[in-house]
Amino acid sequence: MKNSKDSIKLKDAIAIGIGGMVGGGIFAVLGLAVSLAKGGTPIAFLFAGIIALFTAYSYSKLSLSFPDRGGTVRFVNEGFGKGIFSGGINNVLWISYIIMLSLYASAFGSYAPNLISITGSKAIDTHIFVSGVILLATLINYYSLKVVGKIESLAVFVKLFILLAFAGIGIYGLFGNANLSQLNPTNWESPFLLLTGGMVIFVAYEGFELIANAVPNLENPKKNVSRAYFISVGFVVLLYIIIAMVTVGSLSFDKIATAKDYVLAAAAKPMIGQIGFTIMTVAALISTFSAINATLYGGSRVSYELAEDDELPHSFTDQFWNKPIGLIITVILTLLTANFLNLESISTSGSAGFLLIFAVVNYVSFRKAEKIKSNKTISIIGAILSSVAFIVLIVQQSTSNLLGVFISLGIICLCFIAEWAYKKKVSKTEQ
Q: By C-alpha distance, which of 141, 90, 67 is closest to 328?
């Protein structure tokens, strides 16, 4: 029996899914999407959303059959056992959390200097804000998880309210805007680049998988699990498409390119002037800060669970200031990634990691179809779409962002090599 105090209602699960997706992702990657897809940016978000919806089906079926706070980690282990492959994939998940943190911190660092100048140099200020927000979130995580939860709950409401207002005012303002013609199919990039644009910014959708961690406490799971996934993902797909339409229809491509790292704030300016720019900048700072707060905790939990499952050294279950040592390791790796990689490389690495993980989870749903009562066709389509999207992303980015591709593939290879070496060491010790 679930304790009623700890139980989660459907609306709470939907909030977890929406909050996980509408974090810092949309603020960080919208400009990047427009640079790749141009007038077809809404279609790029739709492509990514379709993959998210197929994957949400697999997650809903697996969550019902294997309710566990470990979520994705448990699903991969159920599908492949606790071996080198599952350990490597789960390590990719942990590193992908670190990449997401870097993405959110980069977005915070891009928006903040538009409100506050510290040194007079935007480049230096960006690094100060990037490092400062990570360290502040770390202190809050060490101080109180209850504070983390309260910040996230408030932030979900604030950012959704502002984004919905932006979408509503923006649609109204599109009529008569000279830039509306940019949405015409003549201004779309090739289908290949539209697909690539969607895959580079796929990180903006990955947060729905956090619902899996909450399923053990969800009220009436048989009825509510699939609803939580599909309502949250469906809502966010529509929201992103509308935001992309408003942005492309409001600003010229030149202005979008100039304000690439803080494009949502720039798009709000023609609608309601400087106050719109300021409000959207504040929304970006709140969203990215809350996302860093929540993801730091999630990332440290993943490393702890992997250590408990013998997929990382047991030292990861040790405590440092009464928190899993994985928290401080996650913070150090995030500081390095956010300060030394550019936004496109971070986004590419994050998207590649989650597309690979989702391909595996969809395949687990296919393999376990009889046990979890899932539709094999839907699950295998999800696995194929995720795999093809991963390949398309790597192929296209190899022509324009070779560093991002090397980092993405390097991280994945390193995760498997490290798991192989660790398993070999453990087996020798046990002999």
A: 141
Predicted confidence (pLDDT) at residue 1 exceeds the cutoff of 50: no
Residue 324 three-state SS? strand
Instruction: Check whether 324 has a pLDDT greater than 90.
Output: no
DSSP 3-state assignment of 219? Answer: coil
Residue carrying structure tokens 């015409």: 184
d(Cα 58, Cα 208) in Å, to the nearest integer?
Answer: 12
- DSSP letter for each residue of 73-118: HHHHHHHH-SSHHHHHHHHHHHHHHHHHHHHHHHHHHHHGGGT--S
Q: How many CB atoms lie within 10 A of CB 429?
A: 7
User: What pLDDT digit, counting tens, does each position of 134-174 carry?
Assistant: 999 999 888 876 777 777 778 888 888 989 999 999 888 78
Count CB atoms within 10 A of the CB of residue 124.
12
Q: Identify the residue whose tokens are 């860093």.
A: 292
**Arithmetic mean of pLDDT over the chain:** 90
Q: Are 208 and 218 in contact (CB under 8 A)?
A: no
According to the model, what pLDDT value does residue 431 have?
A: 62
pTM given for the model: 0.90
Region at 319 (left for phi over 0; alpha for psi -120 to 50; beta for the rest):
beta
Partner residues linked to 205 by β-bridges: none
End-to-end CA distance of the chain: 42
Residue 45: closest CA among 257, 317, 242, 192: 242
Looking up tokens 């994050």 gives 350
Maximum Cα interatomic distance, the chain, rounded to a whole number of Å: 75
Domains, the chain? 10-425 (1.20.1740.10)
